[in-house]
Design goal:
The radius of gyration is 17 Å and the shape is globular. 56% of the residues lie in helices and 14% in strands. By secondary structure, the chain is of the alpha/beta class. A 5-stranded parallel β-sheet has the order 2-3-1-4-5, sandwiched between helices.
C-alpha cells in the first residue's frame, strides 16, 4: 500500500530538514520547488510572452545570458504583482501535478516537499498526513538570507505573501491529517 505525506510550511521553516529525517526512515521525497524550476524552463516561451511587458515596465530582465529564465528576476516580478503569480501557477501547476503523480506511482513511501501544496487539492487528496513545519520569524530570516542570498526586501515580500499559510492548510486539510511541527 502506497503512503504519501506532505511536508509544507513557509520559506526557510525547515521543510528540507524534516524531509531528510524522514528519508532516514525509508521515505523518498520530491521537492516541488525544484520541479517548478524545471517546469518554468519547459514553458519558458509562454511565461516570457505573458510577463515580459510587465518586466520591462519594472526594468527587470527575465532571461539570463544563456536564454534561460532568471528565476530570481521572475520571483521579484511575481512577488511584486500577486495577480501575475496566479497566471504563472496556471501555466506551471499542471506540469508539476503530473510529475508528482508519476513520482507517487513510482515509490511506496513518498514525501511531497512543498510550500503551496494547498493550491493543488488533487495532490493533497493523495496525502495521508500533512506535516506543517513552522519556525520563528528571525530564525527563518537568518536561514533565508544565508541560503538564498536574496535582498532583505525580497525575503520580506515572500514572508508577507506566506503570512496566512497555516490558515490555508487548516481550511484545506482535515484536523486529523494536519500535524504541526515547530523547528
Amino acid at each position: 500500500m502506497k503512503e504519501v505525506i506532505a511536508v509544507v510550511g513557509p520559506m526557510a521553516s525547515g521543510k528540507n530538514y524534516i524531509c531528510s529525517q524522514k528519508e532516514k526512515e525509508g521515505w523518498i521525497s520530491v521537492d516541488a520547488d525544484i520541479l517548478v524550476h524545471d517546469a518554468i524552463e519547459l514553458v519558458k516561451d509562454k511565461i516570457l510572452a505573458k510577463f515580459v511587458p510587465f518586466a520591462e515596465k519594472e526594468h527587470i530582465k527575465l532571461t539570463n545570458n544563456d536564454g534561460t529564465i532568471n528565476r530570481r528576476a521572475l520571483g521579484r516580478l511575481l512577488f511584486s504583482f500577486p495577480e501575475l503569480l496566479q497566471i504563472q501557477e496556471s501555466i506551471v501547476y499542471p506540469i508539476i501535478i503530473q510529475q508528482i503523480l508519476e513520482f507517487i506511482n513510482e515509490h511506496e513511501k513518498s514525501i511531497i516537499n512543498a510550500t503551496l501544496l494547498y493550491k493543488t487539492p488533487q495532490l493533497l487528496a493523495y496525502c495521508d498526513k500533512v506535516i506543517y513545519v513552522t519556525s520563528p520569524f528571525f530564525k527563518r530570516l537568518i536561514r533565508a538570507r544565508r541560503r538564498d542570498k536574496l535582498p532583505l526586501a525580497q525575503i520580506l515580500k515572500r514572508f508577507h505573501a506566506q503570512r496566512n499559510l497555516l490558515q490555508e492548510y487548516k481550511k484545506s486539510v482535515s484536523a486529523e491529517k494536519l500535524i504541526i511541527v515547530k523547528n
